[in-house]
Design brief:
By secondary structure, the protein is an alpha+beta fold. About 40% of the residues lie in helices and about 20% in strands. It has helices at about 50, 95-105, 150-155, 160-175, 190-195, 205-215, 275-280, 285, 300-310, 315-325, 335-345, 345-355, 355-375, 395-400, 405-420, 430-435, 450-465, 465-480, 485-495, 500-505, 510-515, 525-535; strands at about 5, 25, 30-35, 60, 70, 90, 115, 120-125, 130-135, 185, 220-230, 235-245, 245-255, 260-275, 295-300, 335, 380-385, 440-445. It binds iron/sulfur cluster (2 copies).
Amino acid sequence: MAYKIPSDCMACDSCRPQCPTGAIEVDNGQLWIDSALCNNCEGYHDKPICVESCPIDLPVISQPKKGRAKIIDDRPFTNPDLFANGKNNPFASAIIIWEACNLLSQRQSLTWQQSEGREVVYQRSINQGKGEISLKILDCSAAASLAKQQDSCLVESLDIRAACVHLIYAAYATTLEKPWEQDFLISDRQIEEYLGLDKRKDLSKPVKLNLIKKLAQQPCAIEATIYSPRQGRIDEFSIEKENLWHLLEVKHHFYEDELGCKHLAGLTFRIKAGMWAKHFLNKHACRDRKAFYQYSSLPQSLLEMVMSNWQQHEGAVRMMLWLLFKTRMGREQRLTVPTLMRIAYGEKRLHKANCDREERKRLLRTFENDLLVLNDYKLKPVFDTVTYPPEIQPLWVKLSAIPDDSDEAIDFWINDGSSNNRLTDASPRGKWNSLMNARIVQFELPDDWEQTFAQLEKKRQKLGISKLKNIASRKKLAIESAISGEHVASARKDKGWSQRELAKITGKSQSWIRDIENGRFHIKPEDQSLLQQVLALD
Ligand code: SF4
Ligand code: SF4
């Protein structure tokens, strides 16, 4: 049971510096104890040190509360909720936001360097080495809650889930006209909902509030230095050591019990974007081509996915966060396996696997499981059939290729039994070396990752709504005249091909062919022409 401070406290402040867990805080001159942090001094002292050091024998043990609590202050109005469509929301996706997201998700796995001023920084060149971004973790209570003051400890104390809050801030920034001048207010309730923490019945309210506070503070502990060279009509600019997000205020909301003890009931954060937003998220200057306005679509499902997988599948979470920005550059992004492994596990671990057989086996198993996590989330990897052929693909890919239809499944197993590489065969020798040259052609995206919002916005600006209507009707016409899954299935059967054979010929996965034939999604125009060509469809 945690301790609490009744209203007869004299506020002499003798107890606060003694608390080994930092649970005692001050609000408006009145002391209160964060029950999520107070552990009764277990592991530090035989008796609660705050009671020992108090001249009037406070604090007292906190009993479970009964009846209705008295809310002390009203909460301020926050900015409107994100994800109004229940799926996604625009967010600032500039390179600086991407790199800060990498910093929060990849932490010690990144290559940290010592700057001239002997600071530990993460640096990244931009525009073919003409510009540079440099990020540093500031020694604020957020990042250094556990560790004390060493740069390496600051990096270790970062929590991967703070990347989600960073993305939420980037989404709020797009709701403002001039985010570098305007701030936004966000409450614990909003963050709780966006992260799916409202569904976590195993966490108590104080624990959730404590977690939210820590996650909300960490993106604000990133300091950025940017030098961007001239690009077209956009002048060169530099930003010297400025917080990426300014945490202007953390407001605590309390309820009061019958002894006048304050208990934390809620939090509100006032945040403002740094000056990066003036150059990368400036609508007005962008129209005159004097600044960028770079944004993309943030799916809420990604936030919930990170929150539920960060412990078990950290590699998968890192890849997801990285792909969120990468896929903004276009669907077809050929990625090598070493690139993905570096993002998921870091350069050091990849190097170790190259030298050590056991580590290689472990890393391979983890990588294939992490790809399965992405696949289950509908971020489906499409393997390059030349460099990443079925014999070195993960077993789950082969298993997912088994047709649902019983007749087709029998054909599948007959074909499998007579082929050189059977599904149940052990991995071929030299699989690791082959993987080091293997490529993933692209990731198929979940529905809520689609860029429709951003595309529609751009088109609306360029063409006007009336033209959009024409495009929509032309698209509708194209869909109506397009080939369907039934066409594909019957043309394939006419040719006597199995789904697997068609997948090989088209360079697609068998599950993709199966989904197309079952009508699970529309066939994209580029895939339509491929199927028309291969199956000789009119
Ligand atoms: S009991 Fe110990 S941990 Fe709890 S508030 Fe007092 S000093 Fe801090
Ligand atoms: S609880 Fe006791 S020691 Fe702490 S501020 Fe109040 S009177 Fe001082």
